[in-house]
Amino acid sequence: MKKRFFAAVLAAMMVVTTGVTVYADKKEKTVTIKLGYTHSNPDREASDEVMYAETFKEYVEANCDSIKVELYPGNALGSQPDTVGAVSAGTVQMTIQNSSLLNNYDPNTMIFSMPGAFKDIEETNAVMDSDWAKGVMEETGKNTGIRILGNSCTGMRSFTCKGHEMRSVEDAKGLTFRVPDSPIYTEMVNALSANAVPMPSSEMYVAMQNGVVDGQENPIQNVVIDKTYEVQDWYVLDNHTPTVMSYMMSNKFYESLSDEQKKVVDAANEEAMKKSREVTTKLEESGIATLEENGMTVYIPTEEELQGWHDAYGPVCEEYMRQQVGDELVDELLTQIEEVRK
Fold this sequence. Notes:
By secondary structure, this protein is of the alpha/beta class. It has one domain: D-Maltodextrin-Binding Protein, domain 2 (3-Layer(aba) Sandwich). 48% of the residues lie in helices and 21% in strands. Strands 3, 4, 5, 6, 9, 10 and 11 form a 7-stranded mixed sheet that branches. The chain has a two-stranded antiparallel sheet with strand order 1-2. Helix 2 runs antiparallel to helix 10, helix 4 crosses helix 12 and helix 6 packs across helix 11. The protein starts with a helix and ends with a helix.
């Protein structure tokens, strides 16, 4: 009897030393999630990305002994495109990135940034949380190897400029705006009878400082972080398109997890996403105050003015999107937005 007992104990010790966690009669492999993201701000209350990453790690490790989470802020795992590519290839387990980086892997993901479609952050999140959007992202996962655990809107992109008061569409005519190197942004600016200048974000500040461009467009958080207020004095919240962050995981890695491990990962994502959105709400409110304290005028359009902005570039961008992803997907998005508004 004693021999059997010691044999059982020895076997259990061997299992533990080979990296396997024992739950009663069930065995799970110990795994590590490398989670890479861009922000390196140590204060989670000042960054939705940091809040998500740290909350995710804390929840997972508090509820599952067989999963460890290593955090890599400040693009420590590589550039944003490279990190997304590594997740797709399965060499990195997880990352937090702008959903636009999925466009090169699956053009259908462009649908979530169609200018003129969404009114605000809350509406965008409601659509992104819908079964329809989850279905689109599920297909993306099958086609790309990137599983989308969830999405959060971290702000609505809006126009800034210097030396001009912008309230309505008429005020934007003839101005020159820096935009990301994406055709739909050029279409949007051209629809305002303004001029689009595609350039990397790293060149944007100097271009505004030297008057190469009159303005640019970004959400409140970015305008604060980039200190755009130093070279711009007007910000009109036309909310032309949302910035959506996606919480991406290697589909191969996710499918290798046990059912219990998957449950913990899914629950951790929900908790982290909730906390992240709370940070976004706070930063939106404090961001406006920060910009105004630094001499910037933040103009909130009337309902009529806001509709005017969206009517100017919405139809043009919708037509462009139909050419890129097809009528069916665009119609489904518009139907989903209407459902949310009801």
